[in-house]
Amino acid sequence: MKVRIFDTTLRDGEQTPGIALTPDQKLAIAQKLDELGVDAIEAGFPIISDGEKKAVKEIAHAGLRAEVCGLARTEKKDIDAAVDSGLKYIHTFIATSDIHLKYKLNLTREQAVTKAVEAVEYAKSRGLQVEFSAEDATRTDREFLKKVFRAVTDAGTDRIDIPDTVGYSTPQYIAAITKDTIDATHLPVSVHCHNDFGLAVANAISGIQAGAQCAHVTINGIGERAGNASLEEFVMALQCLQFDNKFETNINSKLLYETSRYVSKVVGVQVQPNKAIVGENAFGHESGIHTHGVLNNPLTYEPISPELVGRTRWFQVGKHAGAHGISAMLEEYGIQPSKEQTHEILEQVKKLGDQGKHVTDVELLSITGEVMHQEGLRRLVHLTGFSVSTGMGNMPYAFVKLNIEGKDFIGTDYGVGPVDASINAIQKITGEISKVRIKEYKLDSISGGSEALCEVTIKVEDSYGNQASAKSIGEDIVITSVQAMIDGINRIMLKKILKQKNLGL
Length: 505
Ligand code: MN
What we know:
Elements: E1 4-7, H1 23-36, E2 40-44, H2 50-60, E3 67-73, H3 76-84, E4 89-95, H4 98-105, H5 109-125, E5 129-135, H6 142-154, E6 159-164, H7 171-185, E7 189-193, H8 200-209, E8 214-217, H9 231-240, H10 256-267, E9 284-285, H11 288-296, E10 314-315, H12 323-331, H13 339-354, H14 361-372, E11 381-389, E12 397-404, E13 407-414, H15 418-434, E14 437-445, E15 454-461, E16 467-474, H16 477-502
The structure holds manganese (II) ion (MN).
Manganese (II) ion (MN) is lined by residues 12, 163, 165, 192, 194, 224.
C-alpha cells in the first residue's frame, strides 16, 4: 500500500519554540522537501503575517511536484487568505475536545459542528481541496468525534485528519478511532501525531495499520513542544520493519540524511546524537565486540545499511575499541600496522580512555605515528600559495592556491574575519571537487600573551557523511587554521580514495 507523506515542517515545525523562517528560507526548504519526494507540503498559516502569506504564495507558485497546502481556522478570513496566497488545498481545523471548547473557544459542541460545516462549505465554494482536522481529536468524546467527522463529510470535505494534538494517544487508541473515522466517512484519513510521550511515530504507524492513508510528519521531528512524528523515522520504519501489508512511500530515502542536515542548519535546531536514522551516532560503532561484528557482516549490529539513508558508518576509537576496530580505522587512511604495533596502539588508546579522554582520529594518528616511527600520512593536498588582507573598512579577503594530486586550484573569498575568509576560500575549492565542508572549528590559546601559541581543531565532513578531524598548533591564528583545514581535507580525501579503491572503483 502506498502511504501518503504530508510534510508539515514549514507549518507545525516552524511552530517549534525559537524558530522563525524568512520567506526565502521557507521556499528553499520546500524545494528540498519536493526533491525528497513528499506528497504534500503544508507551507504555512497564511493569515498570521504578511511574510507568511508571501512565503506560502512563493511556494504555491514554485512549480513543485508536491501538492501545496496551507492552514486555516474555520474562519472565512483565514480561508480567503489561503485563496489569496494562490493555494488550491487547505487544512482547516477546529477544536472538538470539551477542554478546548470550554477554555479556548467558548463554544458548545453544536456551535463547533456548525462552524466546521460552514467553513468546509465555504472552502468548497471557493474551489479548494479540503482536509479537515478535529483539533485535540484524541481527547474528544469518541461518539461526538464521529458526529463531527460525519457532518464535515456531508459538507463536502475531501480528507479527514485525526490530530493527536498533545501526544496523548496510545497506538491502540489511535488505531481504534482511525477505524471509527473510516467507517463513519469512507474518506481518505490522515493521522497527525505529537511526541509528548515519545510515541509519535508508533502512533502514526498504528494509524496507518488501521487503514489511514496518510501521516503528517516533520523533518527531524521538529514541532510544538516535544515535536511531531519524524519523517525519517516514520518512512524508514514503514519501509524496513515487518508488517502484514507491504507499505511504500514516494520518498527517496537516500536523501534523508542530507535533508535532515539542511533543515537542522536552516532552522538552527540541532539533531540529538542518538536520534534514530539521522542522529550522529545512528551508524557509529565504538565497542570492540560491535566493531568486529560489523566488519565481518554489518547486519550483526546495523538493522539497515547506512547507504540506504545517504550515510556512511564510522568507527570511534576509545577504550571499548578492540584490535579489529583500531585496524579498521587506520585502514581508512591506508595504514597497516603489524599485530604487535596494533596491540601497542590499542594499549595507549585504552590508557587515554581510562583517563576520561576522548580519542579522536587526531590522537589515534599521532599515537600510530609514534608507535610506527613513520613520517605520517600520504599527502594529497598541498598549500602552494596563500595571502589574506584584513583591516578596518574593508571586508577581509583571502587568496588560496592548492595543489591536489598534481592539479592546481585557486580560490578567493571574503569573510567576517581573516580566518573565515581563508576557510571560505578553501571551501570554494574543496566544495567543488569533493563537497567538503567544515563541521566544527575550535580555537584554544595554549599560553598567555600576544605571542601565545594557538591550537586549532577542526572537523570536516563530505557529502557522504565521511568525517575527519585535524589539529594544528602555531603562532599565527590564520595560518594555523589554514593548516588544520588542509590536514582535515587531506584526511577525508584519503579516506574517500581508499574506500573507492576497496570497492574496486
Ligand atoms: Mn500539530
